[in-house]
Amino acid sequence: MGKKRDYLVWSILSTLFCCLPLGIVAIVYSVKANSAYDAGNAEEYAKAADKAKFWTILSAVLGFIISALAVLVQGAMLFALGLEEGGPVVY
Amino acid sequence: MAERFEFLRRGLLVLLPLVVLALAGTALFLYGDFFADAVKRFSPGCVFRKWLHIYCPGCGGTRAFVALMQGEWLAVLKYNAWWLPTACILVVEYIDWALGKLFPQRDFPLWRKLRIKLLVAYAAFTVLYVIARNIWRF
Questions:
Q1: Pick from B61, B89, B126: CB nearest A24
Q2: Residue A85: per-residue pLDDT
Q3: From the list B50, B86, B130, which residue is nearest A12 (CB)?
Q4: Residue of A13, A4, A18, A55 lying closest to B115 (CA atoms)
Q5: What is the value of ipTM here, to two decimals?
Q6: B3-36 as b/e, with b when 16 or more CB fall inside 10 Å?
Q7: Range B101-105 contact pairs with CB under 8 angstroms and sequence separation of 24 or more
Q8: Cβ of A66 under 8 Å from any chain B Cβ?
Q9: From the CA of B30, how many Å to the nearest CA of chain A?
Q10: Whose CA is closest to A33, among A13, A59, A11?
């Protein structure tokens, strides 16, 4: 069946740090891939491992983009509020 | 001789995460208040909870971390109960990785069965925890 591709730790980290519910899908597919590998089911393992990889990457990338956008929006709002009050915002 | 050297090399590789973890644990133990303040000050908060009102499994992680640094163990579980099983699963994964590194030719059928059962239980807990969090808002 070849070398095992295990995305469980990556999917947990992407769920934990990217705060995305999509990471849960990655965790479920990672566990499914592990079970299939252990049972010797090559076809199901390959499918589940591919899906786990896809959801892990999607969760990490979207989490990063959305968090970066949130920081920018919050920063802009704080800056605008600071200007309204008559002085520059000091961070 | 070469085999023994290779085993030693793999043994050191297996010890490396434990050393990193011990150093991080010592730093957190010694400078817990500093880390807690830094996290409180710079964490942007969960975007999804703020904008979409969706509670993900990691929500409350920052508060749980701050509570951990202040030694409030019960508060850690109250803010985020997902941490504990996640830490257990990461330990399980570390043991599995270490066994694979140290004994690549050997099979551990009982361990494999136990690991899969724990992983399935963890995935089920994660899904149920998120559903429960979004229904009862905790």
A1: B126
A2: 60
A3: B86
A4: A4
A5: 0.80
A6: eeeeeeebeeebeeeeeeeeeeeeeeeeebeebb
A7: B101/B10, B101/B13, B101/B14, B102/B7, B102/B10, B102/B11, B102/B14
A8: yes
A9: 24
A10: A11
Band the pLDDT of A84: cuts 50, 70, 90.
low
Closest residue to B56, CB basis, from A19, A38, A67: A19
Give residue A19's identity as a one-letter amino acid code.
C
Encoded amino acid at B28, one letter: L
Q: Which residue of A has its CA nearest to B94?
A: A9
Count CB-CB contacts under 10 A for residue A23. Answer: 29
Residue A73 near chain B (CB below 8 Å): no
Per-residue pLDDT reduced to its tens digit, A15-47: 887 767 788 999 999 999 999 998 999 999 999
The predicted model scores a pTM of 0.83
Residue A62, chain B, CB below 8 Å: the answer is: no
Report the percent of chain B where pLDDT is more than 90.
44
Length of chain B as a residue count = 138
